[in-house]
Amino acid sequence: MSAPHPHPEIDCEVLADAMGPDPAATGSQPPPPPTRAARWLEAGNGLLTRCDTLLERRLPRELNPLAHLGAAANAMLVLATFTGVLLLVWYSPSLQFAWHSLADLGPRSLGGIVRSMHRYSSDLLMLLVLTHALRVFLARKFAGARWLAWASGIAMLGLIWFIGWTGYWLVWDERAQLLALDSVRAIDVLPVFGEPMLRLFASERTVPSLLFFVVFFLHMLLPLGIAAGLCLHLARLSRSALLPDWRLSVWLAGAVLIAALVYPATNAAPAQMALKPDTFSMDWWYLGPLAITSRLGGGGIWLTFLLAMAGLMTVPWWLGRRRQRATFQAAVNISRCFSCTHCAQDCPFGAITMVPRTDGKPFPSQAQIDADRCIGCGICTGSCDTQAIGMAWFDAQQVTRELEAWVQATAAAGKTPALALVCANTEGGWDLFDRVGWSRRLPGYEVRPVPCAGWVEPKLIERLIGKGAAAVLIVGCGSSEAFAKEGNRWIHARLDGTREPSFRPNRADPHKVAHVIFDPLQPARLTAAAQRLRDGGPATEPVRRRRAGGWLAGTLLTAVMLAVVLVVSDAPFRNPVPAEAEFVFSFQAHGDWLETAPAATVDPAEDTRPVHMRAALPAQRTRAPVLVRLEVDGRTIEQTYQPKGLKSDGASVGELRVPLNPGNHAVTVTLLTNQDPTAAPKVWRGTIEAKERHLNVLSFESARGFELEP
Questions:
Q1: Position 248 pLDDT exceeds 90
Q2: Which of 76, 192, 208, 382 is deepest in the core (most CB within 10 A)?
Q3: How far apart are CA 121 and CA 113, in angstroms?
Q4: What is the pTM of this model?
Q5: pLDDT above 80 (res 621)
């Protein structure tokens, strides 16, 4: 970016006065709203804005968690990662020892506290991410140029959930047992493995240790994907804070520590593949999908997941409106650009860059709009002394002349001209702005909506006061999730003289201008402040939030936050799987080789192939299908399983399940690996005792034969 280029103030004034507005901009209509259902979304956003203003009466904005949800989530991600790595001191990543390595930790020992902090920081992370997503959705900050931030955010939400899902697998308790079964059921739908994996989870002996290690590897590696996702998520934002104020980070970490001490995390009962868990408590922040997946097959799980992700990822397209960029985005009048770079510095979305000059004027650069980033907030207009940049539908030159004409006409009529420039996003945007209601709220003021408080240029205020305005009140929205992000920040700094272009007290009386952030819970304060300003009172922000009782407010907020986290993280769950007993026969058997004709050989005298390729090709051999006959108390079930492999030369793999009534049952399993009816079959006979929620598992492998699992 080029360095700011000084320019004479008189040139700016002369140029602004001499050049009229763009004729195409005069009388243009406001653009359509960026999203559909704006009224409903604003109702929810208004509720959260009221929560902001309520909290910030006692807490500074730097300590308001609702104002820093994304950064606070990052702080909890760091804490969860740190405690997870530290937990490896005590945790043993193996099927045999995983459950005991965690269960043997004392609840308030160092290892137990680290384990509990790892869990509750992960839960608080999910709460903050979900609240952040809801808040962004209600604030309508997902359409147009913001689609990348929304889509990447949803992808990271799914990734965070999956990391937590794999984390609970590593505990290997009853919760892990159910999520492992549902996960493998979904994996079996994919053409990844040559044989169904689900049958391996019928008993402890056959559960693959390698898969457990793969899950452990994913749980450790996937957090790196969040770092890549954050790069995309913040790519179109300027001055984004990755972490909140250190005091808020310490506060949240302290809350997690309190939760770990008061309500230590514990294991459920150890996983027993031969048992169907009944009722237990589980962490609904991550394991909530079990309520759905436990009732679905593998295909249903994938369909539900894909529909949910597709619906969330495509919100910017099915809820956002398609608008022509020229109708709402900023444009540059190069002939008025003096290469000051203020607009590029102030843009919250990095939509303005300085490029080499194209019109031959003696300035090093000119502003250029990136149409893929601009949301039409108007902050750049307030940063430009020469009105070289702005929006065609709300042309700064035209608005300036209209306001000056109104001030002069009102003063000529013997009245006191007072103007209120109100951010239209205080009520959800231009189309929802209630001008009549604001006029009642600000008696004696001419109310004019503006795209953002940051749209107001200090020179505009100077000119209005110079023309006779007794008061110029700028009203900013009170939401911490403001549509334009930094409008209140920049107008406040410009009026204070700490950011260019700044308000110049030698040009206008600073006691006649004030910037007020609207508190929707206390509209009377704004009315009183406006009246004091109109009567010649001090031009300072009249709405003063009291900080007394901040510790009490913080304690109450912490208690509510922890209560939500703990209640959801240890809520009851009832396994929807039928409680009836089952007999399960799981097998892997090779059918006999089928006789086939050998491959024809080529006469050596006529074989023109290279010497190393003249060997006779082997015969193509295939295996016979395997027939399984299952007899339970005289009832017979018979099923044929084809061999696996592209050439049907692999083993036949399968599983048969039969529900049983409680009691003893005579069972006979017959395995035929040859199509010859006279061949001797492989047979197992025995009596089993069926119990409710128990599985009686019989397995067969060619190398081991029949085995009744304990």
A1: yes
A2: 382
A3: 12
A4: 0.89
A5: no
| Average pLDDT taken over every residue of the chain | 88
What strand order describes the sheet that includes 513-517? 446-450, 418-423, 471-476, 513-517
Closest CA to 133 of 312, 333, 350: 312
- Residues 534-549: what's their mean pLDDT? 61
Q: Under 8 Å CB-to-CB from 306, ≥6 apart: which residues?
A: none
Alpha carbons within 13 angstroms on the beta-carbon side of residue 504 total 11
Q: Which residue has the tokens 């107001």?
A: 456
Helix (H, G, I), strand (E, B) or coil at 93: coil
Note the pLDDT tens digit of each residue in 294-328: 888 888 899 999 999 999 999 999 999 988 888 89
Give the C-alpha separation, 76 to 432, whole Å: 37
Structure-token pair, residue 591: 């059918």
CA distance 302 to 185: 10
3-state secondary structure 315-340: HHHHCECCCCHHHCCEEECHHHCCCC
Residue 11, SS3? helix
CA distance 81 to 614: 61
Task: Answer yes or no: are the C-beta atoms of 213 and 93 closer than 8 Å.
Answer: yes
Cα 79 to Cα 73: distance, rounded to the nearest angstrom: 10
Alpha carbon distance 472, 413 (integer Å): 19
Q: Which residue is associated with the tokens 């042309």?
A: 395
Residue type, 65: P
Q: Phi first, then psi: what are they for 342, rounded to 5°?
A: -60, -40
Cα gap 48→142, rounded to integer Å = 17
Residue 182, token pair as written in the block = 């549902």
**DSSP string for residues in 601-629:** PPPTTT--S-GGG-SPPPP---B--EEEE
**What's residue 647's pLDDT?**
75
Q: What DSSP character marks residue 267?
A: -
What confidence tens digit (pLDDT) does each residue in 643-662 have?
A: 887 777 788 888 889 999 99
pLDDT at 602 > cutoff 70:
no
Please, which pLDDT band fits residue 599 given cuts at 50, 70 and 90? low
Q: Distance between CA 136 and CA 152 in Å, rounded? A: 13
Map tokens 């009105």 to a residue.
387
Could you tell me the CA-to-CA distances from 280 to 42, 80, 435, 508 in Å, in that order?
40, 25, 56, 70
User: Does residue 603 register a pLDDT over 90?
Assistant: no
Give the chain's end-to-end CA distance (angstroms, integer): 72
Using alpha carbons, select from 305, 281, 282 the residue that is nearest to residue 293: 305
Indicate the SS3 state at residue 697. Answer: strand
Q: What average pLDDT does the segment 438-457 reach? A: 94
Domains and CATH numbers, the chain: 9-29+329-392+394-534 (no CATH), 68-318 (1.20.810.10), 581-708 (2.60.40)
Decide: 331 and 392 in contact? Cβ < 8 Å: yes
Asked whether the beta carbons of 201 and 176 are under 8 A apart, the reply is no
